[in-house]
Protein backbone atom coordinates (compact mmCIF):
# COMPACT_ATOMS: atom_id res chain seq x y z
CA UNK A 1 0.00 0.00 0.00
CA UNK A 2 1.17 3.54 -0.73
CA UNK A 3 1.05 5.09 2.74
CA UNK A 4 4.51 6.50 3.39
CA UNK A 5 6.61 9.03 1.44
CA UNK A 6 9.16 6.28 0.65
CA UNK A 7 6.44 4.38 -1.22
CA UNK A 8 6.29 7.06 -3.94
CA UNK A 9 10.04 6.82 -4.38
CA UNK A 10 9.79 3.03 -4.59
CA UNK A 11 7.13 3.18 -7.31
CA UNK A 12 9.37 5.49 -9.33
CA UNK A 13 12.37 3.25 -8.70
CA UNK A 14 10.62 0.08 -9.83
CA UNK A 15 9.19 1.75 -12.94
CA UNK A 16 12.75 2.79 -13.87
CA UNK A 17 14.04 -0.69 -12.98
CA UNK A 18 11.41 -2.24 -15.25
CA UNK A 19 12.28 0.06 -18.16
CA UNK A 20 16.02 -0.45 -17.62
CA UNK A 21 15.61 -4.24 -17.53
CA UNK A 22 13.47 -4.24 -20.68
CA UNK A 23 16.10 -2.22 -22.52
CA UNK A 24 19.03 -4.38 -21.33
CA UNK A 25 17.17 -7.58 -22.24
CA UNK A 26 16.26 -6.26 -25.68
CA UNK A 27 19.77 -5.05 -26.41
CA UNK A 28 21.47 -8.15 -25.02
CA UNK A 29 19.41 -10.61 -27.02
CA UNK A 30 19.24 -8.54 -30.20
CA UNK A 31 22.63 -6.91 -30.49
CA UNK A 32 25.22 -7.95 -27.95
CA UNK A 33 27.69 -10.69 -28.93
CA UNK A 34 27.85 -12.41 -25.57
CA UNK A 35 27.32 -15.88 -24.08
CA UNK A 36 23.74 -16.51 -22.96
CA UNK A 37 24.65 -16.86 -19.27
CA UNK A 38 26.18 -13.39 -19.32
CA UNK A 39 23.11 -11.97 -21.06
CA UNK A 40 20.90 -13.37 -18.30
CA UNK A 41 23.33 -12.12 -15.68
CA UNK A 42 22.94 -8.53 -16.87
CA UNK A 43 19.16 -8.83 -17.19
CA UNK A 44 18.78 -10.11 -13.62
CA UNK A 45 21.22 -7.62 -12.14
CA UNK A 46 19.43 -4.75 -13.89
CA UNK A 47 16.16 -6.03 -12.47
CA UNK A 48 17.68 -5.86 -8.97
CA UNK A 49 19.82 -2.73 -9.36
CA UNK A 50 17.53 -0.76 -11.67
CA UNK A 51 19.11 2.26 -13.38
CA UNK A 52 22.48 1.37 -11.80
CA UNK A 53 22.40 -1.98 -13.64
CA UNK A 54 21.63 -0.10 -16.86
CA UNK A 55 24.52 2.27 -16.20
CA UNK A 56 26.93 -0.65 -15.73
CA UNK A 57 25.63 -2.26 -18.88
CA UNK A 58 26.06 0.71 -21.20
CA UNK A 59 29.39 1.78 -19.68
CA UNK A 60 31.05 -1.63 -19.54
CA UNK A 61 29.38 -4.12 -21.82
CA UNK A 62 27.03 -2.82 -24.50
CA UNK A 63 28.75 -3.00 -27.86
CA UNK A 64 29.18 0.66 -28.89
CA UNK A 65 29.36 -0.10 -32.63
CA UNK A 66 29.23 -3.40 -34.50
CA UNK A 67 32.46 -5.35 -34.12
CA UNK A 68 33.84 -3.31 -31.22
CA UNK A 69 32.77 -5.53 -28.32
CA UNK A 70 36.10 -7.34 -28.03
CA UNK A 71 38.08 -4.14 -27.62
CA UNK A 72 35.41 -2.30 -25.65
CA UNK A 73 35.28 -4.80 -22.80
CA UNK A 74 39.07 -5.17 -22.41
CA UNK A 75 39.76 -2.75 -19.50
CA UNK A 76 40.18 -4.46 -16.15
CA UNK A 77 37.46 -2.39 -14.44
CA UNK A 78 34.94 -3.68 -16.99
CA UNK A 79 36.17 -7.24 -16.61
CA UNK A 80 35.80 -6.89 -12.84
CA UNK A 81 32.30 -5.54 -13.29
CA UNK A 82 31.40 -8.48 -15.53
CA UNK A 83 32.80 -10.93 -13.01
CA UNK A 84 30.80 -9.27 -10.22
CA UNK A 85 27.68 -9.29 -12.40
CA UNK A 86 27.65 -13.03 -12.81
CA UNK A 87 28.37 -13.55 -9.12
CA UNK A 88 25.58 -11.15 -8.12
CA UNK A 89 23.12 -12.52 -10.68
CA UNK A 90 23.29 -15.98 -9.19
CA UNK A 91 23.84 -15.16 -5.53
CA UNK A 92 21.25 -12.40 -5.34
CA UNK A 93 18.65 -14.52 -7.11
CA UNK A 94 19.20 -17.29 -4.58
CA UNK A 95 19.12 -14.84 -1.67
CA UNK A 96 15.95 -13.10 -2.83
CA UNK A 97 14.09 -16.35 -3.50
CA UNK A 98 15.17 -17.62 -0.08
CA UNK A 99 14.10 -14.34 1.57
CA UNK A 100 10.59 -14.66 0.12
CA UNK A 101 10.32 -18.26 1.32
CA UNK A 102 11.73 -17.62 4.81
CA UNK A 103 9.47 -14.57 5.29
CA UNK A 104 6.43 -16.67 4.32
CA UNK A 105 7.50 -19.48 6.65
CA UNK A 106 8.01 -17.03 9.52
CA UNK A 107 11.61 -17.97 10.28
CA UNK A 108 13.59 -15.72 12.62
CA UNK A 109 15.88 -13.20 10.97
CA UNK A 110 19.14 -14.94 12.00
CA UNK A 111 17.97 -18.16 10.36
CA UNK A 112 16.75 -16.18 7.34
CA UNK A 113 20.30 -14.99 6.76
CA UNK A 114 21.79 -18.48 6.96
CA UNK A 115 19.19 -19.90 4.58
CA UNK A 116 19.68 -16.94 2.23
CA UNK A 117 23.46 -17.36 2.25
CA UNK A 118 23.17 -21.07 1.52
CA UNK A 119 20.64 -20.55 -1.26
CA UNK A 120 22.65 -17.69 -2.75
CA UNK A 121 25.85 -19.71 -2.69
CA UNK A 122 24.16 -22.75 -4.25
CA UNK A 123 22.47 -20.69 -6.93
CA UNK A 124 25.65 -18.85 -7.75
CA UNK A 125 27.91 -21.90 -7.75
CA UNK A 126 25.75 -24.53 -9.40
CA UNK A 127 24.03 -22.32 -11.94
CA UNK A 128 25.74 -19.10 -12.81
CA UNK A 129 29.38 -19.74 -12.05
CA UNK A 130 29.74 -23.35 -13.13
CA UNK A 131 27.59 -23.00 -16.23
CA UNK A 132 29.48 -19.90 -17.16
CA UNK A 133 32.86 -21.58 -16.74
CA UNK A 134 31.72 -24.65 -18.62
CA UNK A 135 30.45 -22.47 -21.42
CA UNK A 136 33.83 -20.77 -21.65
CA UNK A 137 36.34 -23.42 -20.75
CA UNK A 138 34.55 -26.57 -21.76
CA UNK A 139 35.09 -29.66 -19.66
CA UNK A 140 32.56 -31.47 -17.50
CA UNK A 141 30.02 -29.69 -15.30
CA UNK A 142 31.41 -31.27 -12.12
CA UNK A 143 34.93 -30.27 -12.99
CA UNK A 144 33.73 -26.69 -13.35
CA UNK A 145 31.87 -26.80 -10.06
CA UNK A 146 35.16 -27.82 -8.43
CA UNK A 147 37.17 -25.07 -10.16
CA UNK A 148 34.52 -22.42 -9.40
CA UNK A 149 34.25 -23.21 -5.72
CA UNK A 150 37.05 -21.02 -4.36
CA UNK A 151 36.31 -17.87 -6.43
CA UNK A 152 32.58 -18.25 -5.83
CA UNK A 153 33.16 -18.63 -2.09
CA UNK A 154 35.29 -15.47 -1.97
CA UNK A 155 32.91 -13.43 -4.09
CA UNK A 156 29.75 -14.65 -2.35
CA UNK A 157 31.22 -13.87 1.08
CA UNK A 158 32.04 -10.32 0.02
CA UNK A 159 28.64 -9.88 -1.61
CA UNK A 160 26.74 -11.14 1.45
CA UNK A 161 28.98 -9.04 3.73
CA UNK A 162 27.48 -6.00 1.98
CA UNK A 163 23.97 -7.28 1.45
CA UNK A 164 23.20 -8.87 4.85
CA UNK A 165 23.53 -5.79 7.10
CA UNK A 166 21.69 -3.55 4.61
CA UNK A 167 18.81 -6.04 4.34
CA UNK A 168 18.65 -6.73 8.07
CA UNK A 169 18.78 -3.13 9.24
CA UNK A 170 16.27 -1.97 6.62
CA UNK A 171 13.88 -4.88 7.07
CA UNK A 172 13.86 -4.59 10.86
CA UNK A 173 14.02 -0.81 10.95
CA UNK A 174 11.28 1.67 11.68
CA UNK A 175 9.04 0.50 8.84
CA UNK A 176 8.85 -3.28 9.07
CA UNK A 177 6.62 -3.60 6.06
CA UNK A 178 10.09 -4.31 4.64
CA UNK A 179 9.71 -7.80 6.15
CA UNK A 180 6.67 -8.54 3.97
CA UNK A 181 7.23 -9.73 0.39
CA UNK A 182 3.78 -8.32 -0.48
CA UNK A 183 5.09 -4.79 0.16
CA UNK A 184 7.16 -2.72 -2.27
CA UNK A 185 9.41 -1.82 0.64
CA UNK A 186 10.58 -5.46 0.88
CA UNK A 187 11.72 -5.29 -2.74
CA UNK A 188 13.29 -1.90 -2.13
CA UNK A 189 15.32 -3.38 0.75
CA UNK A 190 16.37 -6.25 -1.53
CA UNK A 191 17.44 -3.83 -4.28
CA UNK A 192 19.50 -1.68 -1.94
CA UNK A 193 20.98 -4.84 -0.44
CA UNK A 194 22.04 -6.07 -3.88
CA UNK A 195 23.59 -2.69 -4.70
CA UNK A 196 25.57 -2.77 -1.44
CA UNK A 197 26.55 -6.39 -2.10
CA UNK A 198 27.75 -5.47 -5.59
CA UNK A 199 29.86 -2.59 -4.25
CA UNK A 200 31.53 -4.76 -1.60
CA UNK A 201 32.12 -7.69 -3.98
CA UNK A 202 33.51 -5.56 -6.80
CA UNK A 203 37.13 -4.99 -5.58
CA UNK A 204 37.72 -8.66 -4.86
CA UNK A 205 36.31 -9.57 -8.27
CA UNK A 206 38.69 -7.15 -9.98
CA UNK A 207 41.54 -8.87 -8.15
CA UNK A 208 40.32 -12.34 -9.09
CA UNK A 209 39.97 -11.38 -12.76
CA UNK A 210 43.45 -9.85 -12.72
CA UNK A 211 44.86 -13.05 -11.20
CA UNK A 212 42.86 -15.19 -13.70
CA UNK A 213 40.89 -16.88 -10.91
CA UNK A 214 37.69 -15.73 -12.57
CA UNK A 215 36.59 -14.65 -16.01
CA UNK A 216 35.01 -11.35 -16.69
CA UNK A 217 33.22 -10.22 -19.80
CA UNK A 218 33.71 -11.92 -23.12
CA UNK A 219 32.59 -11.93 -26.68
CA UNK A 220 30.95 -14.81 -28.43
CA UNK A 221 30.36 -14.59 -32.15
CA UNK A 222 29.01 -17.16 -34.53
CA UNK A 223 31.81 -17.65 -37.09
CA UNK A 224 30.57 -18.06 -40.63
CA UNK A 225 27.82 -20.54 -41.33
CA UNK A 226 29.28 -23.36 -39.29
CA UNK A 227 27.56 -22.15 -36.13
CA UNK A 228 30.75 -22.80 -34.34
CA UNK A 229 31.37 -20.39 -31.54
CA UNK A 230 34.55 -18.55 -31.12
CA UNK A 231 35.31 -17.07 -27.73
CA UNK A 232 37.31 -13.98 -27.26
CA UNK A 233 38.72 -13.76 -23.75
CA UNK A 234 39.57 -10.19 -23.23
CA UNK A 235 42.74 -9.37 -21.37
CA UNK A 236 43.93 -12.86 -20.64
CA UNK A 237 45.50 -15.71 -22.45
CA UNK A 238 43.10 -18.57 -22.70
CA UNK A 239 44.31 -21.82 -21.28
CA UNK A 240 46.61 -20.19 -18.78
CA UNK A 241 45.97 -21.11 -15.14
CA UNK A 242 45.43 -18.72 -12.27
CA UNK A 243 48.35 -16.51 -11.35
CA UNK A 244 47.99 -16.58 -7.58
CA UNK A 245 49.97 -17.94 -4.66
CA UNK A 246 48.45 -20.16 -2.02
CA UNK A 247 49.05 -17.64 0.84
CA UNK A 248 47.41 -14.88 -1.26
CA UNK A 249 44.37 -17.02 -1.90
CA UNK A 250 44.19 -18.05 1.75
CA UNK A 251 44.47 -14.47 3.02
CA UNK A 252 41.76 -13.20 0.66
CA UNK A 253 39.50 -16.12 1.58
CA UNK A 254 39.98 -15.47 5.29
CA UNK A 255 39.38 -11.74 4.97
CA UNK A 256 36.18 -12.12 2.97
CA UNK A 257 34.97 -14.83 5.38
CA UNK A 258 35.55 -12.44 8.26
CA UNK A 259 33.65 -9.73 6.38
CA UNK A 260 30.80 -12.19 5.89
CA UNK A 261 30.67 -13.06 9.59
CA UNK A 262 30.68 -9.36 10.45
CA UNK A 263 27.91 -8.59 7.99
CA UNK A 264 25.77 -11.40 9.32
CA UNK A 265 26.32 -10.77 13.06
CA UNK A 266 26.94 -7.05 13.62
CA UNK A 267 23.28 -6.13 12.89
CA UNK A 268 22.30 -8.31 15.88
CA UNK A 269 23.77 -5.59 18.10
CA UNK A 270 21.10 -3.20 16.82
CA UNK A 271 17.99 -5.22 15.98
CA UNK A 272 16.28 -8.26 17.46
CA UNK A 273 17.27 -10.92 14.96
CA UNK A 274 15.30 -13.59 16.80
CA UNK A 275 12.12 -12.04 15.40
CA UNK A 276 10.37 -13.16 12.24
CA UNK A 277 8.15 -11.37 9.75
CA UNK A 278 5.17 -12.79 11.63
CA UNK A 279 6.35 -11.42 14.97
CA UNK A 280 6.53 -7.87 13.71
CA UNK A 281 3.59 -8.05 11.31
CA UNK A 282 4.66 -5.24 8.98
CA UNK A 283 4.56 -2.75 11.87
CA UNK A 284 5.47 0.90 11.34
CA UNK A 285 7.14 2.20 14.48
CA UNK A 286 7.04 5.75 15.87
CA UNK A 287 10.11 7.90 15.20
CA UNK A 288 12.23 7.94 18.33
CA UNK A 289 11.12 4.60 19.75
CA UNK A 290 14.04 2.73 21.25
CA UNK A 291 14.25 -0.68 19.61
CA UNK A 292 17.17 -2.76 20.81
CA UNK A 293 18.36 -6.27 20.13
CA UNK A 294 16.07 -7.53 22.88
CA UNK A 295 12.85 -5.62 22.05
CA UNK A 296 10.05 -8.20 21.83
CA UNK A 297 7.87 -8.32 18.73
CA UNK A 298 4.82 -7.85 20.94
CA UNK A 299 6.21 -4.54 22.20
CA UNK A 300 6.59 -3.41 18.61
CA UNK A 301 3.02 -4.38 17.75
CA UNK A 302 1.84 -2.53 20.89
CA UNK A 303 3.46 0.73 19.80
CA UNK A 304 2.97 0.36 16.05
CA UNK A 305 0.98 2.78 13.91
CA UNK A 306 -2.61 1.95 13.09
CA UNK A 307 -2.38 0.42 9.63
CA UNK A 308 -4.54 2.32 7.12
CA UNK A 309 -5.67 -0.97 5.58
CA UNK A 310 -7.62 -1.66 8.80
CA UNK A 311 -9.61 1.58 8.64
CA UNK A 312 -13.27 0.60 8.25
CA UNK A 313 -14.83 4.06 7.95
CA UNK A 314 -14.06 7.75 7.76
CA UNK A 315 -16.15 10.04 9.95
CA UNK A 316 -17.34 13.43 8.74
CA UNK A 317 -14.83 16.14 9.71
CA UNK A 318 -17.42 17.78 11.98
CA UNK A 319 -18.67 14.52 13.55
CA UNK A 320 -18.79 14.65 17.37
CA UNK A 321 -18.09 11.89 19.86
CA UNK A 322 -19.88 11.27 23.16
CA UNK A 323 -23.35 11.39 21.55
CA UNK A 324 -25.98 9.88 23.81
CA UNK A 325 -27.00 6.36 22.75
CA UNK A 326 -30.68 5.58 23.31
CA UNK A 327 -31.24 2.05 24.62
CA UNK A 328 -33.79 -0.48 23.37
CA UNK A 329 -36.00 -1.77 26.13
CA UNK A 330 -36.25 -5.58 26.09
CA UNK A 331 -38.33 -7.05 28.94
CA UNK A 332 -37.46 -4.10 31.11
CA UNK A 333 -33.72 -4.33 30.33
CA UNK A 334 -31.94 -1.35 28.76
CA UNK A 335 -30.04 -2.81 25.81
CA UNK A 336 -27.14 -1.01 24.13
CA UNK A 337 -25.11 -2.11 21.10
CA UNK A 338 -21.48 -1.15 20.95
CA UNK A 339 -19.23 -1.98 18.05
CA UNK A 340 -15.48 -1.42 18.05
CA UNK A 341 -13.81 -0.61 14.71
CA UNK A 342 -11.00 1.43 13.20
CA UNK A 343 -12.03 4.89 12.00
CA UNK A 344 -10.47 7.95 10.51
CA UNK A 345 -11.40 10.80 12.84
CA UNK A 346 -10.74 14.53 12.67
CA UNK A 347 -9.40 16.00 15.89
CA UNK A 348 -8.88 19.26 13.99
CA UNK A 349 -10.09 20.28 10.51
CA UNK A 350 -6.65 19.49 9.09
CA UNK A 351 -5.56 16.70 11.46
CA UNK A 352 -6.98 13.20 11.15
CA UNK A 353 -6.17 10.30 13.40
CA UNK A 354 -6.65 6.64 12.59
CA UNK A 355 -8.26 5.62 15.84
CA UNK A 356 -10.11 2.77 17.52
CA UNK A 357 -13.71 3.74 18.16
CA UNK A 358 -16.94 2.48 19.67
CA UNK A 359 -19.79 3.10 17.22
CA UNK A 360 -17.48 5.05 14.90
CA UNK A 361 -17.07 7.98 17.30
CA UNK A 362 -14.35 9.14 19.68
CA UNK A 363 -15.16 9.07 22.54
CA UNK A 364 -17.66 6.25 22.19
CA UNK A 365 -21.36 7.02 22.71
CA UNK A 366 -22.52 8.21 26.10
CA UNK A 367 -24.49 5.59 27.98
CA UNK A 368 -26.90 7.25 30.35
CA UNK A 369 -29.00 5.11 32.70
CA UNK A 370 -30.66 5.41 36.09
CA UNK A 371 -29.54 3.84 39.33
CA UNK A 372 -31.18 0.41 39.65
CA UNK A 373 -31.53 -0.15 35.88
CA UNK A 374 -30.84 -3.57 34.45
CA UNK A 375 -28.39 -2.94 31.59
CA UNK A 376 -27.28 -5.23 28.77
CA UNK A 377 -24.52 -4.22 26.38
CA UNK A 378 -23.71 -6.26 23.30
CA UNK A 379 -20.14 -5.58 22.20
CA UNK A 380 -19.11 -6.47 18.65
CA UNK A 381 -15.43 -6.50 17.75
CA UNK A 382 -14.51 -5.33 14.23
CA UNK A 383 -10.94 -4.43 15.19
CA UNK A 384 -7.92 -6.24 13.76
CA UNK A 385 -7.18 -7.48 17.31
CA UNK A 386 -9.06 -8.89 20.31
CA UNK A 387 -10.72 -6.58 22.83
CA UNK A 388 -12.97 -6.42 25.92
CA UNK A 389 -14.92 -3.71 27.80
CA UNK A 390 -14.47 -2.80 31.46
CA UNK A 391 -17.12 -0.81 33.39
CA UNK A 392 -14.90 1.45 35.40
CA UNK A 393 -15.91 1.80 39.04
CA UNK A 394 -19.07 -0.31 38.91
CA UNK A 395 -20.13 -2.90 41.45
CA UNK A 396 -21.00 -5.96 39.37
CA UNK A 397 -20.45 -9.70 38.93
CA UNK A 398 -16.79 -10.50 38.36
CA UNK A 399 -17.55 -12.25 35.05
CA UNK A 400 -18.98 -8.93 33.72
CA UNK A 401 -15.95 -6.86 34.76
CA UNK A 402 -14.01 -7.15 31.49
CA UNK A 403 -10.27 -7.72 32.13
CA UNK A 404 -9.03 -9.86 29.24
CA UNK A 405 -7.60 -13.25 30.19
CA UNK A 406 -8.49 -12.63 33.84
CA UNK A 407 -12.28 -12.66 34.02
CA UNK A 408 -13.05 -13.51 30.41
CA UNK A 409 -11.58 -14.68 27.14
CA UNK A 410 -10.91 -11.62 24.98
CA UNK A 411 -13.48 -10.96 22.25
CA UNK A 412 -11.80 -12.03 19.03
CA UNK A 413 -12.13 -10.02 15.80
CA UNK A 414 -15.55 -10.68 14.28
CA UNK A 415 -16.94 -12.01 17.59
CA UNK A 416 -19.52 -10.54 20.00
CA UNK A 417 -19.82 -10.57 23.78
CA UNK A 418 -22.72 -9.51 25.98
CA UNK A 419 -22.28 -7.77 29.32
CA UNK A 420 -25.20 -7.52 31.71
CA UNK A 421 -25.55 -6.02 35.17
CA UNK A 422 -27.85 -4.03 37.43
CA UNK A 423 -26.51 -0.60 38.36
CA UNK A 424 -26.17 -0.07 42.09
CA UNK A 425 -24.42 3.30 42.05
CA UNK A 426 -25.08 6.76 40.68
CA UNK A 427 -22.57 9.27 39.36
CA UNK A 428 -19.92 9.84 36.69
CA UNK A 429 -18.39 6.60 35.41
CA UNK A 430 -16.89 5.44 32.13
CA UNK A 431 -16.19 2.34 30.11
CA UNK A 432 -13.02 1.41 28.28
CA UNK A 433 -11.14 -1.48 26.70
CA UNK A 434 -9.36 -3.80 29.13
CA UNK A 435 -7.37 -5.74 26.51
CA UNK A 436 -4.04 -4.12 25.60
CA UNK A 437 -5.39 -0.87 27.03
CA UNK A 438 -1.89 0.57 26.59
CA UNK A 439 -2.64 0.57 22.87
CA UNK A 440 -6.41 0.40 22.49
CA UNK A 441 -7.49 3.00 25.02
CA UNK A 442 -4.77 5.34 23.77
CA UNK A 443 -6.30 4.96 20.31
CA UNK A 444 -9.81 5.91 21.46
CA UNK A 445 -11.68 2.94 22.97
CA UNK A 446 -13.55 4.59 25.84
CA UNK A 447 -16.81 6.41 26.54
CA UNK A 448 -18.82 8.05 29.34
CA UNK A 449 -21.25 6.11 31.51
CA UNK A 450 -23.49 8.48 33.46
CA UNK A 451 -25.78 6.97 36.07
CA UNK A 452 -28.48 9.32 37.34
CA UNK A 453 -29.66 8.86 40.94
CA UNK A 454 -32.91 6.96 41.42
CA UNK A 455 -34.15 9.91 43.46
CA UNK A 456 -34.05 12.89 41.05
CA UNK A 457 -33.68 15.26 43.98
CA UNK A 458 -30.45 13.61 45.11
CA UNK A 459 -27.06 14.89 44.08
CA UNK A 460 -25.90 18.41 43.48
CA UNK A 461 -27.63 19.96 40.50
CA UNK A 462 -26.69 22.79 38.20
CA UNK A 463 -28.36 24.73 35.38
CA UNK A 464 -26.12 23.12 32.78
CA UNK A 465 -23.96 20.08 32.50
CA UNK A 466 -20.92 19.26 30.40
CA UNK A 467 -18.89 16.03 30.25
CA UNK A 468 -15.14 16.42 29.64
CA UNK A 469 -13.23 13.30 28.51
CA UNK A 470 -9.50 13.80 28.16
CA UNK A 471 -7.22 12.09 25.66
CA UNK A 472 -3.62 12.17 24.42
CA UNK A 473 -2.63 11.44 20.82
CA UNK A 474 0.53 10.77 18.87
CA UNK A 475 0.05 11.69 15.22
CA UNK A 476 3.24 11.98 13.18
CA UNK A 477 4.15 11.81 9.52
CA UNK A 478 0.58 10.91 8.62
CA UNK A 479 0.40 7.90 10.95
CA UNK A 480 -1.33 7.49 14.32
CA UNK A 481 0.56 5.76 17.12
CA UNK A 482 -0.83 5.00 20.58
CA UNK A 483 0.50 7.75 22.86
CA UNK A 484 2.41 6.39 25.82
CA UNK A 485 4.98 7.53 28.31
CA UNK A 486 7.86 5.93 26.46
CA UNK A 487 10.65 7.08 24.20
CA UNK A 488 9.03 7.83 20.87
CA UNK A 489 5.51 7.46 22.33
CA UNK A 490 4.97 10.92 23.81
CA UNK A 491 1.79 12.63 22.63
CA UNK A 492 1.75 15.76 20.48
CA UNK A 493 -2.03 16.30 20.34
CA UNK A 494 -4.59 16.42 23.16
CA UNK A 495 -8.37 16.29 22.95
CA UNK A 496 -11.49 17.02 24.96
CA UNK A 497 -14.25 14.72 23.71
CA UNK A 498 -12.23 13.80 20.63
CA UNK A 499 -11.52 17.38 19.50
CA UNK A 500 -8.55 19.66 20.08
CA UNK A 501 -9.06 23.39 20.70
CA UNK A 502 -10.21 25.43 18.75
CA UNK A 503 -12.48 22.58 17.59
CA UNK A 504 -13.66 21.84 21.15
CA UNK A 505 -17.19 22.87 22.16
CA UNK A 506 -18.00 26.33 23.41
CA UNK A 507 -20.70 26.30 26.08
CA UNK A 508 -23.02 29.34 26.18
CA UNK A 509 -24.08 30.54 29.62
CA UNK A 510 -25.65 33.55 31.24
CA UNK A 511 -24.34 35.43 34.26
CA UNK A 512 -25.66 33.76 37.40
CA UNK A 513 -26.04 30.32 35.82
CA UNK A 514 -24.20 27.29 37.14
CA UNK A 515 -22.63 24.42 35.18
CA UNK A 516 -21.66 20.96 36.35
CA UNK A 517 -18.43 19.90 34.66
CA UNK A 518 -17.85 16.15 34.81
CA UNK A 519 -14.14 15.59 34.23
CA UNK A 520 -13.29 12.01 33.24
CA UNK A 521 -9.73 10.67 33.13
CA UNK A 522 -10.25 8.60 30.00
CA UNK A 523 -6.64 9.24 28.96
CA UNK A 524 -3.70 6.92 29.63
CA UNK A 525 -0.63 8.83 30.68
CA UNK A 526 -0.66 12.17 32.44
CA UNK A 527 -2.27 13.86 35.39
CA UNK A 528 -3.95 16.88 33.82
CA UNK A 529 -4.42 19.84 36.19
CA UNK A 530 -7.75 21.06 34.81
CA UNK A 531 -8.26 24.71 35.56
CA UNK A 532 -11.24 27.03 35.07
CA UNK A 533 -10.86 30.79 34.68
CA UNK A 534 -13.20 33.36 36.20
CA UNK A 535 -13.38 32.15 39.78
CA UNK A 536 -13.47 28.94 41.76
CA UNK A 537 -15.73 25.95 41.34
CA UNK A 538 -17.04 23.65 44.03
CA UNK A 539 -15.90 20.03 43.91
CA UNK A 540 -19.08 18.05 44.62
CA UNK A 541 -18.17 14.48 43.64
CA UNK A 542 -15.11 12.36 43.08
CA UNK A 543 -14.93 9.03 41.22
CA UNK A 544 -18.72 8.87 41.00
CA UNK A 545 -19.34 9.54 44.69
CA UNK A 546 -20.95 12.68 46.00
CA UNK A 547 -18.88 14.38 48.64
CA UNK A 548 -20.68 15.00 51.92
CA UNK A 549 -21.55 18.71 52.22
CA UNK A 550 -18.79 19.19 54.81
CA UNK A 551 -16.25 17.55 52.49
CA UNK A 552 -17.02 19.74 49.47
CA UNK A 553 -14.45 22.36 48.75
CA UNK A 554 -13.79 25.27 46.46
CA UNK A 555 -10.84 25.19 44.11
CA UNK A 556 -9.88 26.44 40.66
CA UNK A 557 -7.82 23.41 39.57
CA UNK A 558 -8.35 19.65 39.92
CA UNK A 559 -5.71 17.10 39.00
CA UNK A 560 -7.46 14.61 36.74
CA UNK A 561 -5.37 11.45 36.66
CA UNK A 562 -6.07 8.45 34.42
CA UNK A 563 -9.25 6.75 35.64
CA UNK A 564 -10.32 9.58 37.96
CA UNK A 565 -13.53 11.58 37.78
CA UNK A 566 -14.35 14.96 39.32
CA UNK A 567 -17.76 16.64 39.23
CA UNK A 568 -17.38 20.37 39.85
CA UNK A 569 -19.95 23.15 39.83
CA UNK A 570 -18.87 26.49 38.49
CA UNK A 571 -20.89 29.67 38.60
CA UNK A 572 -20.77 32.24 35.81
CA UNK A 573 -19.94 35.38 37.78
CA UNK A 574 -18.94 37.81 35.03
CA UNK A 575 -19.69 37.98 31.31
CA UNK A 576 -17.00 36.99 28.83
CA UNK A 577 -15.04 34.04 27.44
CA UNK A 578 -13.82 31.93 30.35
CA UNK A 579 -11.39 29.12 29.66
CA UNK A 580 -11.40 25.55 30.88
CA UNK A 581 -7.93 24.16 30.24
CA UNK A 582 -5.13 21.89 31.35
CA UNK A 583 -2.40 23.74 33.21
CA UNK A 584 0.46 21.86 31.57
CA UNK A 585 1.04 24.38 28.77
CA UNK A 586 2.27 21.77 26.28
CA UNK A 587 -1.15 20.12 26.59
CA UNK A 588 -2.78 23.29 25.28
CA UNK A 589 -0.87 23.21 21.99
CA UNK A 590 -1.49 21.28 18.80
CA UNK A 591 1.82 19.65 17.88
CA UNK A 592 3.46 22.50 19.83
CA UNK A 593 1.61 25.16 17.84
CA UNK A 594 -1.01 27.52 19.25
CA UNK A 595 -4.09 28.30 17.17
CA UNK A 596 -6.40 31.14 18.22
CA UNK A 597 -4.71 31.36 21.60
CA UNK A 598 -4.13 27.74 22.40
CA UNK A 599 -4.91 24.18 21.44
CA UNK A 600 -5.47 20.69 22.82
CA UNK A 601 -7.07 20.56 26.28
CA UNK A 602 -8.83 23.90 26.17
CA UNK A 603 -12.44 25.00 25.76
CA UNK A 604 -14.51 28.13 26.34
CA UNK A 605 -17.44 28.91 28.60
CA UNK A 606 -19.00 31.89 26.83
CA UNK A 607 -20.96 33.91 29.39
CA UNK A 608 -23.47 36.56 28.34
CA UNK A 609 -24.44 39.41 30.58
CU1 LIG B 1 -2.46 18.16 30.76
Key features?
609 residues; alpha+beta; Immunoglobulin-like; 3 domains; 6-stranded mixed beta sheet; 25 strands; elongated; binds copper (II) ion
How confident is the prediction overall: mean pLDDT? 93
Put simply, the count of helices is 12
Number of strands: 25
* Beta-strand residue percentage: 15-25%
Poorly predicted parts: 224-230, 233-238
Number of domains: 3
Radius of gyration: 34 Å
Query: How far apart are the first and last residues' alpha carbons, in Å?
Result: 56 Å
**Shape designation:** elongated
> Biggest sheet, in brief?
8 strands, mixed
Q: Based on helices, strands and strand pairing, what is the structural class?
A: alpha+beta
Instruction: Work out the helicity level.
Output: 25-40%
Compounds present? Answer: copper (II) ion
Short description:
The chain is of the alpha+beta class and 609 residues long. The protein has helices spanning 5-30, 36-49, 51-60, 69-72, 76-105, 109-137, 141-171, 184-210, 246-265, 277-280, 297-303, 437-440; strands at residues 218-223, 228-233, 313-314, 328-330, 333-348, 351-358, 364-370, 374-381, 390-392, 416-422, 427-432, 446-452, 464-476, 479-481, 493-496, 506-510, 514-520, 528-532, 537-542, 545-546, 553-555, 557-560, 565-571, 576-582, 602-608.
Structural notes for this entry:
It is a single chain. The protein has helices at residues 5-30, 36-49, 51-60, 69-72, 76-105, 109-137, 141-171, 184-210, 246-265, 277-280, 297-303, 437-440; strands spanning 218-223, 228-233, 313-314, 328-330, 333-348, 351-358, 364-370, 374-381, 390-392, 416-422, 427-432, 446-452, 464-476, 479-481, 493-496, 506-510, 514-520, 528-532, 537-542, 545-546, 553-555, 557-560, 565-571, 576-582, 602-608. It has twelve helices and 25 strands. The relative contact order is 0.08. The strands form five sheets. Strands 13, 14, 15, 17, 19, 20, 21 and 23 form an eight-stranded mixed β-sheet that branches. Strands 3, 4, 5, 6, 8 and 10 form a six-stranded mixed β-sheet that branches. Copper (II) ion (CU) binds at residues 526, 528, 582, 584, 587, 601.
Amino acid sequence: MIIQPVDYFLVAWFVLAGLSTAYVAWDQFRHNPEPVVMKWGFVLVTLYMGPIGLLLYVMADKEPHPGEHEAFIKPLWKQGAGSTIHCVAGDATGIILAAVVTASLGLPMWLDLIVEYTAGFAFGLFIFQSLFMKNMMGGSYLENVRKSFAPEFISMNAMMAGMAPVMTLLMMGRDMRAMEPTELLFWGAMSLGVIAGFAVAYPVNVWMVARRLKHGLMTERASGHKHKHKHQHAGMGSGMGPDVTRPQLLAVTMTTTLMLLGGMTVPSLFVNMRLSARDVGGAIMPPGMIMGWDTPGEAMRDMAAVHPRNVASTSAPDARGDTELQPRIENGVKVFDLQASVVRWNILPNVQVEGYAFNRQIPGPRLRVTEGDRVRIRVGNRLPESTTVHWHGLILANAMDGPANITQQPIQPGQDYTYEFTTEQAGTFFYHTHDHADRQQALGLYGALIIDPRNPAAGERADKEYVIQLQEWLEREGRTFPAMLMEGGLPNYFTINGKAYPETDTVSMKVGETIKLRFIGTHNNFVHPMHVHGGPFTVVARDGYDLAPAARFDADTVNVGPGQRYDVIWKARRPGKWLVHCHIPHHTTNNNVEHQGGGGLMMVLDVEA
